[in-house]
Specification:
Number of domains: 2
Organism: Celerinatantimonas yamalensis
Order of helices and strands: HHHEHEHEEEEHHHHHH
Family: Belongs to the UPF0162 family.
Strand order of the largest sheet: 3-4-5-6
Helix content: 55-70%
Protein name: Tetratricopeptide repeat protein
Radius of gyration: 20 Å
Strand content: 5-15%
Shape: globular
Length: 253
């Protein structure tokens, strides 16, 4: 899954990913020269945590949390600082190498991993710490509010395309925060390849086209969202936005 994401990372960033791939291979080869994978799965999990968070010294970037360089995989690998999204892909890669079944679960707001051991083990890739189910629910409540409760759907394992979408969405949000609208637009276009009819992604793409002074295309995307989601509160705001855009002089691109 990490290599598939690296291929997308290369397309979106314009930076080749071969160096990152070689680095991952070298790290794993060097680890095998010095260690033997444990026969017990629980011990292999401890080896995984030690490898990623101690020997390689990866960590979540608390000091510059929203920086897009934490989400781009090549810069995450180079700087060894990431987000829960990028670090989850890295941990999943080494978990596969250590023959540790690992899922990304459907928790909104952050990535949480589940290792399929004798008893399911939940894991925060941002902190490198194991989680109890109670702590997983607290993460959910931090995102959704105190009334939120953990359900079976939150513990559902995401399919690979869903994981890609979640990582890409995190990258898009980071780029928008930095006013990197052209980069964010490339990510939005990639997200629409996964879900071509997603009205919310069309709305987001319309916003990005608007920031880039492409009013006609923005209007098209906004109208699509209004047609598909007429009862969404945002629809009325977009109708006002469309009228404003229609009054602006056209910009040639």
């Amino acid at each position: 899954m990490l290599f598939e994401a690296l291929a997308l990372n290369e397309e979106l960033s314009g930076r080749e990913s071969q160096r990152s791939r070689h680095q991952l291979f070298n790290w794993w080869r060097n680890w095998l020269l010095q260690h033997t994978p444990a026969t017990d799965a629980n011990e292999r999990l401890l080896q995984l945590i030690d490898l990623v968070y101690h020997e390689l010294a990866f960590s979540g970037n608390w000091k510059d949390f929203f920086n897009s360089q934490n989400v781009y995989l090549d810069t995450m690998i180079e700087q060894r600082l990431g987000t829960s999204a990028s670090l989850a892909l890295l941990v999943s890669y080494f978990a596969h190498k250590l023959d540790l079944p690992c899922d990304v679960i459907n928790l909104p707001g952050c990535f949480v991993l589940r290792f399929i051991l004798d008893d399911d083990c939940y894991f925060d890739p941002f902190t490198g710490e194991q989680l109890t189910l109670r702590e997983v629910e607290l993460k959910l409540r931090g995102y959704k509010g105190d009334l939120a409760r953990l359900t079976g759907d939150h513990l559902r394992a995401l399919e690979q395309p869903e994981v890609m979408v979640r990582w890409l969405s995190a990258l898009k949000s980071a780029l928008i925060r930095e006013d990197q609208f052209e980069g964010a637009l490339r990510v939005s276009e990639t997200l629409l390849q996964f879900n071509p009819d997603d009205p919310h992604e069309m709305r987001d793409r319309g916003f990005l086209f608007q920031q880039l002074d492409c009013a006609n295309v923005a209007i098209h995307d906004y109208e699509y969202f209004i047609e598909k989601c007429p009862r969404d509160p945002v629809a009325d705001l977009l109708k006002i936005q469309i009228r404003s855009l229609e009054q602006e002089p056209s910009t040639l691109h």
